[in-house]
Specification:
Blueprint (H helix, E strand, L loop, with lengths): L7 H40 L4 H8 L3 H10 L13 H8 L2
Helix pairs in contact: 2-3
């Protein structure tokens, strides 16, 4: 029986495994670059004045997804949050 390293079947299988791993790595790099470019485009649209719901409708994603992208890219809020926890509201009233 041939040595494991000299076996042509094993060598072809090893080569296929390595090729698959390399292709998957390349695909992930492409996917990551596309996701980064997409998030930049969403952030630019918001910075240019497009409303978050309009962006969400245009890209087919939820408002929450757009909000998360915006926060991750440092897009300024349209307004400050107005919802306050009951505890914070009670603490503010005691001053």
């Amino acid at each position: 029986m041939p040595e494991k390293d000299d076996d042509p079947v094993t060598s072809r299988l090893d080569a296929a495994i390595e090729a698959k791993k390399a292709a998957e790595k390349k695909a992930q790099e492409i996917k990551d670059a596309a996701a980064d470019a997409f998030a930049d485009a969403v952030a630019r649209a918001l910075d240019d004045g497009m409303k978050p719901q309009a962006v969400a409708d245009k890209i087919g994603m939820s408002y929450e997804t757009v909000r998360r992208i915006a926060r991750g890219r440092g897009v300024k809020r349209l307004r400050e949050p107005t919802v306050t926890s009951r505890r914070k509201a009670d603490d503010a009233g005691q001053d």
